[in-house]
Amino acid sequence: MAASDLSNKSFDFIIAGGGTAGLVLASRLTENPDFTVLVVEAGSDRRGDPLVSTPGAFLQLYSNDKYDWDFKTTSQKSEDGAVHAWPRGKGLGGSSMINFLMYSHCSKSDLDIWRDLGNPGWGWDDIIPYFQRIERMHLPSDPTRTALSTEYIQPSLRGTSGMIHTSWQSDAFNWAQEAWAKQSKAMGYPTSTDPRTGTSLGLFNQLTCVDPSDGTRSYAATTYLKAAEGRPNLKVVTESVVRKILWDTTGANPRAVGVEMETGGSTTQIKASKEVLICGGVIQSPQLLELSGVGQRSLLEKHNIPVIVENESVGENLQEHPMVVLSWAVKPGHSTAEHLRDDPSLLNQAMSLYAASHSGPMAAATTTTGFLDLNSVTQPGTDWTSLATPDTHLPPRQLDLLMTQLQDKKEAVYQVSGMPSGATVSQRGTSNGAMFFHSVPGNYFSMSAGLMHAFSRGSVHIKSANVREYPEIDPRYLSHPMDLELLAHGMLHLKRIVRTGPLAEFLEDARDGSGEKEFMPGVASFNTLAEAREVVKERQITMYHPTGTCAMLPREEGGVVDSQLRVYGAEGLRVVDASVFPMNVQGNIMSLVYAVAEKASDVIKGAYAGEKTNGVNGTGH
Ligand SMILES: Cc1cc2nc3c(=O)[nH]c(=O)nc-3n(C[C@H](O)[C@H](O)[C@H](O)COP(=O)(O)OP(=O)(O)OC[C@H]3O[C@@H](n4cnc5c(N)ncnc54)[C@H](O)[C@@H]3O)c2cc1C
Q: What band does 432 get if pLDDT is binned at 50, 70 and 90?
């Protein structure tokens, strides 16, 4: 639909941002034929684009403005001024359109903490039905089960008729995947259980969001949107940016009554008779609130934005999974991504195989991962309690909860992942694609250790009143001393992993005779904790899981939305996306973003359940 046709039209709900969460809401809300819904998405519809749909092509999406907003952080003080590229999906499906396709789960305690922070209805038991509703898991074939040791999965816990396809590849298993479960045993880690049980430690090959019927990425646009797009009560406009929320300030509280949208050079105002639902993601949801007058008074006044709701917490509480990656040289004869890079005929073969049968290396994404507790990784002798220092950016209650999780033997402190490809983190400030799609001669294997519950807290705030100007993103990486120390221990542990068990057989021995494994050129050697800390500062990158900038918390404890995801101080306005996570959770967070949006759609439907709607409330169709 042309954006100009929408001028002065009215819908029951306007969804600002057709990303991961936004399309879930669009799909679920339009199940009610009495609701009219408009989705406004800044990017395009990339369904059918082979770079998006081919699972093995995802690294080519980053820093390409057709798919990626390509945000950059401020220079990070604790990392000698390093800047980080932060990709975010731009297009229908949002970041689910460009992500690494890894499908994982938070822990039971992660969600029980959400509930106990003042969010009734958001505990583990409350959210399980939504995990079930999201997923359409496909059982592995016998060869896959054997190669990837998938017996840890408990099919009875998994959804099999939901929207998002989850599956394992059917062939082209690599040596690292095949060694992975054995590596876990060799390290003496606990035997993995299905992360859907709520507690899971050890290494395992995880599910990816791939539809095995055609080998393509399964994401919010190909699933949730596809199911809804024939409905007359849903309109979707793309390449249109929501500039701000329109308000009615005549009542006791300001009420969101529509949005101002920019398409090309023209501006359109559209009315929402029930609610505006902000789904712009962790960077652009707080941006849109601030542009609309919801946020810190001094900041809004600085940019001449009238203050509608004063709330110091908008854009604060930014949390990430900081991750450090190391790479080692692989012995000849074992395939890595560099073989495809260096041999065009191999790459052509892989592409032809994918085109003909949706199989081979292009059909696969990263699967090797695992969760490790504090004691499995860290060396004895560290007084963790003394490192738990207060920080003005970290609410004391969060500090206590972080310490409890840190010391819980059942909880993951680290996520460890591996892939047969090198990584040149010197490009962390320019492009995440270039980082893994590097040009260093040779063949490599990389392993990363990421922190599941970082102690550092950052912020996202507007730099001007113009929606086109990117906000200032300051993750304050490593600003809390705990994060640096935990990651330094993680680095030493990664070195232990590669010299132990089956992985060691595939990697070159260090040329200096030290008994270590040979690093990829560019990785400085290190042996002590002090040296490991320097490596962390040089090599820490994003794990792509920022959350928390419109936190669901009591208002006096840093909340921007309540447990119904309503923006405090306003009516007719909710935020639904990764920005509402009050505290970050274990693992790859997409499954929880889908679950948050599924639950939000039930909450919203429930809010209007008693109301007689006649279908003409929205005159947008
Ligand atoms: C590179 C990368 C790799 C990742 N890998 C994984 C993984 O393997 N597994 C996993 O579980 N998670 C992964 N994640 C995380 C996960 O994909 C995201 O957390 C999740 O998709 C975020 O969903 P969201 O709804 O919060 O935001 P998004 O999906 O990013 O949606 C926000 C949408 O809003 C639109 N928008 C923003 N502002 C406006 C505006 N003003 N007007 C109109 N539209 C607007 C954007 O274009 C976008 O489409 C990854 C993320 C990235 C970026």
A: confident
